[in-house]
Amino acid sequence: MTYENTLDFARRLDAHDPLRAFRDRFHLPLGPTGQPGVYGCGNSLGLQPKAARAAVEAEFQSWEEHAVEGHFHGTSPWMHYHETLTDATARLVGAKPVEVVVMNNLTTNLHLLLISFYRPAGGRYKLLMEGGAFPSDQYAVESQVKLHGYAPHDAIVELVPRAGEHTLRTEDIEAKIQELGDSLALVMLGGVNYYTGQAFDMAAITRAGHAVGAKVGFDLAHAAGNLELHLHDWDVDFACWCSYKYLNSGPGGTSGVFVHERFANAPELPRLAGWWGHDPSDRFQMKKGFRPMAGAAGWQLSNAQIFPMAIHRASLALFDEAGGMSVLRRKSEQLTGYLEWLLRELQLPAERLEIITPSDPAQRGCQLSLLVRQRGRALFDYLASQGIVADWREPNVVRLAPVPLYNSFEDVWRIGQAVATWANHPV
Ligand SMILES: *Cc1c(COP(=O)(O)O)cnc(C)c1O
């Protein structure tokens, strides 16, 4: 696409955007002037879908009217509530319904999956992850490694970019996997790195991991609802993600889990168990002896969190209504492409502003990470004063994530204008 740096051009793109009506399905916070702001932080907390409140109200109503009988009565009995999320979740991540379940929160699920899929034994005990992974993932992995009696500095191998580069090359990841060979128990990466915005080639990494006999899993916190995913076809062993970032399901919202079909009937796989993962045919007989349900559902512990799930269900419905991730991705690539183009137009020297997210759309989602070596915090503050909500990561990165469901090309143009103003008159 050929872009132009004018408001008129941005508005023309919006007028022709088949997804433009979805913006109005979300609550957009007002900026400091009382005018609608530009929300560039959907990678951290997605906006509230207007349908969320009614979805939660319906469950308050059910509780009010039916109390304990709400498990069996009401518009969506709680006993089977989580099952109503399965099909939309499977579509979202490219999975079969048996491969997904919605439950708990992300770090909790990461632990549950690591218990099953990080099974160090003999000389095979290493775990490969990104250097500078999201802290919760680092802590989870560190504690799991210790749980098995290994020293983190020995068992955890971190991938770091080549000197002078900001992101990882797929060939370097593959080479490291080969080098670790039969000492490698697990590859565990983010699908999209939260800091750089780099999207990894999950199919290639999974192939490389399997070729040396390792398991491969992904934390999709920044990938779910952002990228087109084909977890089943990519042959990924497991994955999990949160729902409050690109999936717009509210702060602390519930989490999704993928376990490949080949483990659907593997009761011998070690796991931490709870009654909600037990075979439902005799779950309520309260008998001894855990028998897991088939598929990802067999990793459930507790009865479903109805309120966060009500929000999540309302939000997932919007993804389906929009036509799914392939449709959203088309707009997303254009939005982010426009933002990148506007920033490059400024021709700022790299010491002032460098986009560290890969330029190749296949290697990124909607987020651009700007490395601002001088007065980065001032840029972030200036954007905020202009009603532009970005995200600041110490020591010097501003993250901006125009998302296709509710951001417009005009939003992106306004971000470009604000960065240009800051660049000309550093505040
Ligand atoms: C957002 C995020 C988390 C947050 O974990 P919670 O358990 O939901 O608090 C963890 N890991 C990654 C990679 C994230 O991006």
Automatic annotation (TrEMBL):
Pfam family, one: Aminotran_5
Catalyzed reactions per annotation: 3-hydroxy-L-kynurenine + H2O = 3-hydroxyanthranilate + L-alanine + H(+); L-kynurenine + H2O = anthranilate + L-alanine + H(+)
Entry EC number(s): 3.7.1.3
Function summary: Catalyzes the cleavage of L-kynurenine (L-Kyn) and L-3-hydroxykynurenine (L-3OHKyn) into anthranilic acid (AA) and 3-hydroxyanthranilic acid (3-OHAA), respectively.
Cross-referenced InterPro entries: Aminotrans_V_dom, Kynureninase, PyrdxlP-dep_Trfase, PyrdxlP-dep_Trfase_major, PyrdxlP-dep_Trfase_small
Residues annotated as binding pyridoxal 5'-phosphate: 106-107, 134-137, 219, 222, 244, 275, 303
Name of the protein this chain belongs to: Kynureninase
NCBIfam families: kynureninase (TIGR01814)
Domain Aminotransferase class V: 49-274
Pathway of action: Cofactor biosynthesis; NAD(+) biosynthesis; quinolinate from L-kynurenine: step 2/3; Amino-acid degradation; L-kynurenine degradation; L-alanine and anthranilate from L-kynurenine: step 1/1
Encoding gene per record: kynU
Modified residue annotations for N6-(pyridoxal phosphate)lysine: 245
Keyword vocabulary terms for this entry: Hydrolase, Pyridine nucleotide biosynthesis, Pyridoxal phosphate
Domain of life: Bacteria
Originating species: Hymenobacter koreensis
